[in-house]
Structure formats: structure tokens, C-alpha cells
Amino acid sequence: MRRWKLTVAYDGTHFHGWQRQEVPGGEPLRTVQGVLESTIRSTFSIDVRVVGASRTDSGVHARAQVAAFDCGIEIDGERLARAISARLPDDVAVIAAEPVHEGFDPIGDCVSKGYRYTFRDACPNAHRAGVFERLWVAATPHAVDPARMQAAAGLMVGTHDFAGLAHSIEDRATTVRTIHGCSVRRMPDGTIAIDVSGTGFLHNMVRILAGTLLDVGRGHREPGHVRTILASRDRSLAGPTMPAQGLCLEWILYPKTGRQA
Amino acid sequence: MRRWKLTVAYDGTHFHGWQRQEVPGGEPLRTVQGVLESTIRSTFSIDVRVVGASRTDSGVHARAQVAAFDCGIEIDGERLARAISARLPDDVAVIAAEPVHEGFDPIGDCVSKGYRYTFRDACPNAHRAGVFERLWVAATPHAVDPARMQAAAGLMVGTHDFAGLAHSIEDRATTVRTIHGCSVRRMPDGTIAIDVSGTGFLHNMVRILAGTLLDVGRGHREPGHVRTILASRDRSLAGPTMPAQGLCLEWILYPKTGRQA
Q1: Pairing relationship of beta strands A112-120 and A138-139 according to DSSP bridges
Q2: Distance (Å, rounded) from C-alpha A51 to C-alpha B174?
Q3: Would you say the CATH fold of A112-252 matches that of A2-109?
Q4: Cα B175 → chain centroid
Q5: How is domain A112-252 classified at the architecture level of CATH?
Q6: B57: annotated active-site residue
Q7: What is the pLDDT of residues B138-157, one digit of tens each?
Q8: Cβ separation of A125 and B82 shorter than 8 Å?
Q9: A136 contact B CB<8A
């Protein structure tokens, strides 16, 4: 038996998020975990459980989600990735597979994660980006100033209680998280990209962080308002939860995952 | 009554092409023309026929298709484009509207058109591009040499009988067309882009031209083979018809369309 680390890319548009969801008396919802498990099962005739590092929500994308599963078949990583990908639907792909030590835990071993939130501002038709980017880019009718957003983003960095920037925190032991970096840039194509990295994120945290920075960028709030949100732990002071399609899990960092092979 | 020239962008993935298609005893197929006509109808409570410059096939995209329709409502172009776009589904948008002289004919007045065909070569999983580009980029397992493709592309330029590079030509008065330019480049993202412009194109001509250049690029044919295809008028000597998703109508040029406003 060997544990494998998979790097998985997906277009989240037509997935009900990462995590397998059973529907009592019905077909399970289409999720990335569910599709991966059933594809691996049918490819190798084995029963598997695929554990993902990040439970991305419905509609959220990933360039490099990380997942682990155990498998007794002797095969090299490149062939494994190709064999699974060839049978996956075209909106998800295994872009790498490497053997890892048997205790590798994609959630617990994670050192940091990076997300990007992308939106287009000053969209004449209120809430839609262009037809060729609408699946990955959110839109706002307001024009924003990235420099104002960056001033607010800098205040997110550090170890804070992010209760005011999260959804459904009741089941969390702690709402303290550490943000390593948060930068805002206007990209060559005119979209605004918010890159945020940290040890972990609360539910909807990146999308609420993006909505809060947008409020600042359009002049609705001052950058220093971020301090008030963090101190108050009050969700109602933060900006809106931005739509899922603008969010992408970009990378997940692990300490050197000593190969077993 | 005023004639309007619309510039229309669409993601062709979920359209059965441009042209309205009635289904006897059933719902009409979802086409760009059909969706535009029904949206304009419901927006302004008028009955319209929208005439497109190019009858793009099922799955083919457009950044700037041109269409014309007549309308008695007094409105300025920017408001007209916004009013229609706001009610269109999110995979099609009117990006500009301008009043034109009453004899403007989007098909007959066209001076030239530009298409781009985009594919990714050396794809490990045979026939699929990445999950974030699969809707607009075709894929091939073969590695190609763009310089070889360019040598073949240069032989396409000029006025030739393109019968060997077209599908279902029986109903055409002539299969002679003029290609103004045909260039092949590897783009910064690693994809191969074939840009071709000309007075007009036969059915499937750009997709067969792309398949023929791909055959040359992978070393399966010599660049000079293009001369043989053109001279023979024999479709069986040309390359495969490349898939629709790689094709995009980029622009259509008209002589100065004297404004009426």
C-alpha cells in the first residue's frame, strides 16, 4: 500500500464544491471528490477515499488543490496522473501524482495556501464580466482604486481574529488565523487580482475579504475600517461575500514530502 | 425606422451556431440569432429580424460578429447596446451599437474578416487542453513546429480555388476565395494561434486549413503539400477538420459605414 499525493486542477463552475455530498434517496451531488473517487475506482477497480486539503465551495476553482489516497497498485506517478486524467470529465484534471510517506496528511501537514480573487470593475452591465471570462472573473459596476485596496489589504496581514470576515463560525474552536500576505494589483487585462496567502481560512473568508477590499476600493469605506472589523468580530461591518466564480485556490505548500519511492 | 449595426461577442460553447434553426413541432434550437431576436423583441416589444455577417457553426466563438436590424425606437447607441445586453444570457453580449445608412448589408458590404484558430500541442492527455482553456482551445498530442506551419500558411495567401479545403461545397457558385493573410505563432501561454483573414470563407474552411497546417507542423506533410491540395481541389488530401472550440471570429471590416445620426 502506498500513499499518493495528487495535484488537481478544476473549473468549479459545474461542481457542488470539493466535498462528496450524498443525497438521501437520490443521486449524490456532482463534487470534485466524488468524481475523483468514482474515476479512480473504475480505473483501477479499487475502493478509495480521496482526502482533499481544502474544501472549496460550490463554484470555486482550483489550479492546484492537493489530495491524498492510498493504493496498492505499482505504477509510476506520471502514468498514474495520466491514467486518471484520461477518464476524468474535461473540467477536472490530475496534473501531478507523487508517492509520499504513509503519514502524509493533506490538511494537517499544510504550511500555507494561496488563493486569488479576480474581478473586473466599472462593468457597464452591472454584474457581468465579458463572455470569455465570466466563468472565472466576478464583476462590479463600481470603479475601484487598487492603491486604496492595497492599503486595506496590508492591515489583513498578521495573526488576527477573523470572525468578522467569516460565515458560520459556530463550529470552529478558534477564529484566529494568520495571513502571510495580501496584495492587490490591476492585471494587464484590466482585471483586479487579490492574492492572499495564509495558514488557513475560515468559511467564505477570502470572498468576504475581497468584498471588504472592494468597498474600500470604490470609496465606500476607508482602509482603516479593516481594523474596526477585526476588533469588533462583527460580520455586519465587513463587505459583501463576493461570488464564487472569482475565487481560485492557486497553491498549497507542504514541508518537503520525503518520497518513499 | 433606422438600421443599426451591432457588434456581438459570444462564447459559442452552448449555441447551435449563429443561424436561427426551427425544429418542426418542437422548441427552436438555441442559436445566437434566435436569442438576439427574442431578446430584442421582449426588450422593445417589436418584431425584428437580425441579419448576421457570418454564419458561425455550432461551438464556434466570436469576439466581434456584426449584425444588423431595423428599429423605429429613438435611442442612442450606447443605451441600445446596454439595454439588450442586460437582458441577454451571460454567454452573449452586444458590445457596440451604431446607427448606419439604411442600405447597410452586413454580408454584402463586408471587406474582410479575421478568424483565429487556437490549439495546444504536445498535450499529454491526447485530446484535451487544460481545464481553464478547454472551451476556447483545441488540443493535440503531437508537438508542432510553428515555422513549418508558417511556411505552409504562406502558400494559402492569395486568390485560389479552396474546394480542397472546404466541406459541402455543392451549393456554392464558386469555391474561389481570396486570403489576405495567414500567420502562425506560438503565443506567450504556449498555445499555437493561426490568424487568417480574407474576403470570405467556405464552410469549415478555417478548421480544415488549421488541420492541414497541423499535419505540416507535426511533420506528417511537407509545407509544399498545400499547393497539391489547392491544385487538386481534393478534400481527401487536406488535413482533418479541427474541433469547433478552437475557432473564433475576431473581426469584420467594412468600408466607412456613413453614420445617419
Answers
A1: parallel
A2: 61
A3: yes
A4: 18
A5: 2-Layer Sandwich (3.30)
A6: yes
A7: 999 999 999 999 999 999 99
A8: yes
A9: yes
Beta bridge partners of A4: A69, A99
| Residue B11 pLDDT grade (very low, low, confident, very high; cuts 50, 70, 90) | very high
Whether A9 sits inside 8 A of B124 (CB atoms) is no
Quick: pLDDT tens for A135-189: 999 999 999 999 999 999 999 999 999 999 999 877 788 999 999 999 999 999 9
DSSP state string for A110-153: --EEEEEEEEE-S-SSTT---TTTTTT-EE-SS---HHHHHHHH
Give the fold, CATH level 3, of B2-109.
Alpha-Beta Plaits (3.30.70)
| Contacts A–B by Cβ distance under 8 A | 52
The per-residue pLDDT for B260 is 40
**3-state secondary structure at position A64:** strand
d(CA A169, CA A167): 6
Parse chain B into domains and list their residue ranges: 2-109, 112-252
ipTM: 0.85
Which segment of A188-192, B11-15, B32-36, B125-129 scores lowest on mean pLDDT? Answer: B125-129
In SS3 terms, chain B reads as CEEEEEEEEECHHHCCCCCCCCCCCCCCCCCHHHHHHHHHHHHHCCCCCCEECCCCCCCCEEEEEEEEEEECCCCCHHHHHHHHHHHCCCCEEEEEEEEECCCCCCCCCCCEEEEEEEEECCCCCCCCCCCCCCCCCEECCCCCCHHHHHHHHHCCCEEEECHHHCCCCCCCCCCEEEEEEEEEEECCCCCEEEEEEECCCCCCHHHHHHHHHHHHHCCCCCCCHHHHHHHHCCHHHCCCCCCHHHEEEEEEECCCCCCCC
| Start-end of H helices in A10-55 | 32-44
Q: What SS3 class is residue B143?
A: coil
Q: Identify from A35, A80, A92, A131 which residue to disrupt to test chain B contact, counting B C-beta atoms within 10 A and taking the largest count.
A: A131
User: Is the Cβ–Cβ distance between A85 and B127 less than 8 Å?
Assistant: no
